[in-house]
Amino acid sequence: MSAGSKISRTSLVGLVAAAVAVTAFTVPAQARTGVGSDGEKAGKAHQKTQQALDALVTSGLPGVTAGVRDKNGVWQGTAGVGDLRTGKARGADDRFRIGSVTKTFVATVLLQMEAEGKLSLDDSVEKHLPGVVRGNGNDGRQITVRQLLNHTSGIFNYTSDPEFARKHLTAPGFLTHRYDTLAPMDLVKVGLSHKPDFAPGTKHSYSNTGYALAGLIIEKISGSTYEDEVRERIIKPLALRATSLPGNNPHLPKPSARNYSTLSDPTATEFYDVTAHNMSWGWAAGDMISTTGDLNRFLSALMRGKLFPAKQLKAMKTAVPAPGDPLYTGYGLGIYNPHNSCNTTLWGHSGGTPGAVTEAVSSPDGRHTVSYSVNSEGGGGVIDAEFCGDPHSKRLVPAPVL
Fold this sequence. Notes:
Distance between the termini: 25 Å
Shape: globular
Radius of gyration: 20 Å
Mean pLDDT: 90
Strand order of the largest sheet: 2-4-3-16-15-14
Strand content: 15-25%
Number of strands: 16
Number of domains: 2
């Protein structure tokens, strides 16, 4: 489909239903069923999760792919389609944009650096990025690395800037600027063009600007790129072979699904194919690409303490309260406690880019992980189905920008 091609929003449910009906006969394992590493036992264990995937498609989303790692092994499930034009089913091994799940990788790198004595979480931003955070009441001397990572810095979130959103995230600006390359400092400058939301450390408010600064700190300390540090410290050691950092490459690696969006226009009557776009606007706040299998492997290793010492894991899991947040009860360092219907303690992150929403969640011990990705905007219910046995959950994952 071409960059500007569109699909009628009003006919989306019908298109999906028709496509699923066709693919259910041609590739039933990918269209509507789950496959486990130990066969029938794993499939039965995750029937409710499969029901939640099916419900997402019934609600009108194009398709979803999910994966689980637990005591029964590895299970993969899909529902719906990856391409509305051809009716091709979502694939269990699809690559997809993970948005803000990137933040978990970034926080992990900085915690590794702390364990190596290269920084302290309580260092000021000024120490590592002298003179960068200045103006409009912003002062890097008063903000710590920890506050960047748990979103208590007070620095304005650059993706909330109206002009930035009009140009890069919504129609028609996205369609004109989807291949633009933005530098990390371009993102930081947008955030710093606003006054702080509050004094550092006094509240919690999600800020992608803080993670752009975190990426710059990684580069300043390492003398390398943020991308290289993530590859060398996490991707290669864990053999995350389907995980990548795209840089300025606007294309998704194969296999992958098409991504669909209304580009934040509530009155839109058409969906746009937004699959190809340059994610430099997200950078260290949310540009990575992965799969459910790789995300589950990463989260499992992280929660089991395989990536840094216990001191750093404890710091990562020290959450600040987030009253009123629709996604989580508390936010640690690059991970949060997601709301769930059984009020069990879980850790993970979600992410949203135009045309893709991802969520990856783990039990505290890393022995039970689930991740899924929708090739449009919306989601929810999968976490409650997997961890709480509730396939009819009304939990919603908003379509966040990163």
